[in-house]
Amino acid sequence: MNFASDNWAGASPRIIEALARGADGIAPAYGQDDLTRELKARLADLFGREVGVLFAATGSAANSLALSALSPPYGAVYAYEEAHIVGDEAGAPEFFTQGARLVPIAGAGGKLTPAGLEATLARGSGSGSAIPRPAVLSITQATESGTVYRRGEITALTEIARARGLKVHMDGARFANAFAFLAKADGISPADITWKAGVDALAFGLTKNGALMAEAVLLFEPEKAAELEWLRKRSGHVVSKAWPIAAQFLAMLENDHWLDLARHANAMATALSQGLVAAGHRLGYETQANEVFAVLPKAMIAQLRQAGARLYEWPVHGLPADRLPADDADLVRLVTSFATKGEEVERFLALAG
Amino acid sequence: MNFASDNWAGASPRIIEALARGADGIAPAYGQDDLTRELKARLADLFGREVGVLFAATGSAANSLALSALSPPYGAVYAYEEAHIVGDEAGAPEFFTQGARLVPIAGAGGKLTPAGLEATLARGSGSGSAIPRPAVLSITQATESGTVYRRGEITALTEIARARGLKVHMDGARFANAFAFLAKADGISPADITWKAGVDALAFGLTKNGALMAEAVLLFEPEKAAELEWLRKRSGHVVSKAWPIAAQFLAMLENDHWLDLARHANAMATALSQGLVAAGHRLGYETQANEVFAVLPKAMIAQLRQAGARLYEWPVHGLPADRLPADDADLVRLVTSFATKGEEVERFLALAG
Amino acid sequence: MNFASDNWAGASPRIIEALARGADGIAPAYGQDDLTRELKARLADLFGREVGVLFAATGSAANSLALSALSPPYGAVYAYEEAHIVGDEAGAPEFFTQGARLVPIAGAGGKLTPAGLEATLARGSGSGSAIPRPAVLSITQATESGTVYRRGEITALTEIARARGLKVHMDGARFANAFAFLAKADGISPADITWKAGVDALAFGLTKNGALMAEAVLLFEPEKAAELEWLRKRSGHVVSKAWPIAAQFLAMLENDHWLDLARHANAMATALSQGLVAAGHRLGYETQANEVFAVLPKAMIAQLRQAGARLYEWPVHGLPADRLPADDADLVRLVTSFATKGEEVERFLALAG
Amino acid sequence: MNFASDNWAGASPRIIEALARGADGIAPAYGQDDLTRELKARLADLFGREVGVLFAATGSAANSLALSALSPPYGAVYAYEEAHIVGDEAGAPEFFTQGARLVPIAGAGGKLTPAGLEATLARGSGSGSAIPRPAVLSITQATESGTVYRRGEITALTEIARARGLKVHMDGARFANAFAFLAKADGISPADITWKAGVDALAFGLTKNGALMAEAVLLFEPEKAAELEWLRKRSGHVVSKAWPIAAQFLAMLENDHWLDLARHANAMATALSQGLVAAGHRLGYETQANEVFAVLPKAMIAQLRQAGARLYEWPVHGLPADRLPADDADLVRLVTSFATKGEEVERFLALAG
């Protein structure tokens, strides 16, 4: 019963097959290989336009590289206060941007709200004011709270940003889960919720979705790729053997394998969520992607752990007052993945009944 | 009627005399001169212990150099949300520290509160949490709101900080005004409200107090001065002719000239403040140093300007609800200085009656 | 006939097998997994002492992370003028160290010489001198010229460095090839040519040796690992799935697979080198590891290319005058790898005869 | 007999008078004052075109700010190996540019040569080469060796730089001495040896020439000033009271006071130089500005010191072989200034006869 994180899961067999195929051959180094070229074309197809594609070893690096392409060193980056770039990347955004400032904004349901963004942007700081120059809005899709921005929610934010000259970054470490959710609900394309919705750069990650390591910055202003390539090189993220990363992405995109895996993870989360609600538990956030936040009695959490469940208690910051756990309870986060088995969910629900 | 800022005022005649004396002579460059040596001894006397003394061209640089001595690049610096380092230094702290993060904290009366500091420090961010490492608490004395931390208020904050391993920085751009206020009220020494109260580094500025340029970092861990000297050199703040800065500091410290000037500025602010209250105006913050924050009708502000008054409307963020200006009014900031004349205050009050 | 580079080769089958084994399981993220733990123990065995182990995505990142652990931002790093950190990493050392300076030094045979190092370190720059503080000596093993420092050559350099308070970094992107050469010749251990020879940090890479991605910083002052971990996290090199990197290292170290692969590559280079000399060609540098530098007629280079040979013309800087190519010739670099086949060498020699 | 450095001299009386005039008044802070505005117009006149003007506290800061306007973080800056930015600024260029690399180039007579510059720019570093991107050529005028680039020498270098897309920086800490020399010899204007000769940014300093602190970056691409202003603010070089710096510059430029002072310093150096040659001593470099480099017997140096002479022994690196001192002699540097008196020169020559 691994619900600790989707990055605890191994990898899809197709990933290993793709690596095995390439291991036998010869490929030019530093991204000059055929697979990388093929992937670039494939991503252009997927997003319906030319994109700059730059691999990175981690989602943190992809996020920070994207931010460094969008913000000057004296810029300010606005993000939801519980965003990964704010709370989980140890200052990587500051390092890559050479000192840009992260400005955390309160929100609702794990998301930024237009009103919250407006209020923060409107605040100056006195006549002699010299705050870092507002430069970037960052949106996480799906959010760290397992919720998903709908197309209209994205554009509501990006329009505010663009009206003030800000660029827009999207942290897509779980873009697959968000897209799988929205594609079902809304009949939309990846373009619709990225560049057509005002996003300038997407950190597109498939590691959590079943790859071993497949992260890339997608620049929807591809003319910025040349400069970012210099920054990427000096950050040590230009791997000598790039083909294994391209091979993983290609295996994922082939026949919508990435979506199949994301749909599976989402479905497991939905089942878990519905079962918990049916058993009378309260949710912290709506379950839309592959994360379930539920309020469970502390004693039950201990029993679940003893039975082998892997899960994390989670900070309640950002939760509305009526969803806060009582003293004898805790908010827990349950993450499903491509590898989650139906039996695991069933067993967990049986214990949490 | 210059109430725009204390850094609009010229300089005390004694400053010019001190410069004139030195201009005739010869002095080794880069701080190896006699006046700099003399000043270091004088500051050790004033603070009752050995201190590391490093000049900087501005208060912003002094603050940021101090922060770079106290925080690693991956550190977090906690400060009141309206602090100068947060809102008015354009990312200098990030630049000098190579990317440390400023974490703004709400407060009351222009000051940090122990509860606010505790709450912020207590917040983590999930199990995989990797926020920048908590490193520094920054306190502004006197505050940007014209209030002054009393000794007990300082220690209440520094004890929380030290219990978590944080170092403490004090922005003393108006330290003179704070000390003049406290010395009168409490019978305390500079040591009592700095290193004896848990402060590790003080950005000590006398520019606003009547010098042309007199800013320094005082390190109460003087063994850190050698490393900070390297950082200072590469930041371009090791002036070739250091004696003029030392000469200004010495002229200020001689016979407590700095305190006389600060007391005058404070007295002018008190007179202004009392006059405005007597005339029925509401204050935004208590007047303790040399800044008055008052709510005035917009029409009156316009008239005052026309009559030659220099002043700024000021953001109301941080003001308690019962002090917020009505729609036809604004919060204004009035700063007095060593050069403010009694007649200026009287004339202003006559117009604002 | 791929002699372009060892990072053009695919990967050893054992690498893929190791990844396949892990793909099926579940492992805690961010390096908390069993394989990473196992590898750390294995590396401690190999080097005969406790070591700090930090993965990175590339050799450039491993080098730069190591340098950032050894040099302050205001430090100077001394290296051979053709070292990879000087000429091929696009300023990564400057980025990771936050601005340390690389000081290139001339040498002989692709190596630093004690005399060259002494002369550079001895040079000051005037009375007011403030060059960045001498901080690190960097040695590449095997060198970019395919030569190998013998134990005595290393200690001759590190003793000079240590006498002046410098730390020592070793770029070991081809450490396997160097060790395979020296182990045969001298009967030495990895410890003998690293920490016992005065090296503080080794960038240990097996990617060129047959892995897909296996690079790590080994700190022989393991107490520095905690701080470097912070720097690594903010550089985006803490991969969420660390076990695949650990699995690759472990597969390599098991039964000395890494040495078998390196010996094969070296043997191929030796065969190539001897064949070229036998055919009357001049070598640029002695062939000790897996790189051959030979002077070939330009017409022959063109013919070899047409026959399918992959190789690079190489800058002659650093070559002694008597080895410089004539006008109708060029210096070429031929790199062999774990995947080089004997027939490739034979075919190349037949054409270059 | 102060020949230690021109920055040991005090200040011209006119500097103090200018400060005294301003001390009495009121002036908007942060460079919004009238004197700063007046100076900008005055500098536009002097250079015959619009210029961006940004003050800095030191020549090091002015140099580094200029470099940060001209080079990306992944850029390379080419300079003479004994340039101040290379050897005396403790890594300030790296700090301000966020990691650009300084590439030192050998020269002759304290100057870069076109051949040396070409050779360095021509050198790549292997096929996978990724040196930092060539970005800036830096020229020092007058040089650290007391020599002066003539107009044709400047354009010979800047044409090479421009042909490769490099920008050009000029370190003008002793621009006054250089211009005083050239204006006499060649009948040229400040424009002729700066922007009309291909220079993009000049660090223009008058501190060594008799001010207390008067340093500025002049941008001949004034549209770059807005961005540099952000970088300057975060470096702590936007002083709150800017008028004292403007006042110093204005006092210097009024009635060519700066040139009178520079001509005096140069004349003193010429007298010293001619006297030493007449006494049979050898010069290290031609005396063109206000520095004399002479080879003196060690015993004589000791006697001069005992008699009160202040001077520095100087590194011989860069000296042609036929000018190197013998074992019992040393190269000394003698710097004259606006404050040097004829009697000091006479007394020195009497002792060195």
TrEMBL record, chains A, B, C, D:
Cofactor: pyridoxal 5'-phosphate
Pfam families registered for this protein in UniProt: Beta_elim_lyase (PF01212)
Alphabetized InterPro entries for the sequence: ArAA_b-elim_lyase/Thr_aldolase, PyrdxlP-dep_Trfase, PyrdxlP-dep_Trfase_major, PyrdxlP-dep_Trfase_small
Keyword list, A-Z: Lyase, Pyridoxal phosphate
Entries under Gene3D superfamilies matching the protein: Aspartate Aminotransferase, domain 1 (3.90.1150.10), Type I PLP-dependent aspartate aminotransferase-like (Major domain) (3.40.640.10)
Domain Aromatic amino acid beta-eliminating lyase/threonine aldolase residues, every copy: 3-295
Secretion signal, residue range per the UniProt entry: none
Any GO molecular function: lyase activity
SUPFAM superfamilies from the UniProt entry: PLP-dependent transferases
Subunit composition and interactions: Homotetramer.
Family in the record: Belongs to the threonine aldolase family.
Protein name (record): Beta-eliminating lyase-related protein
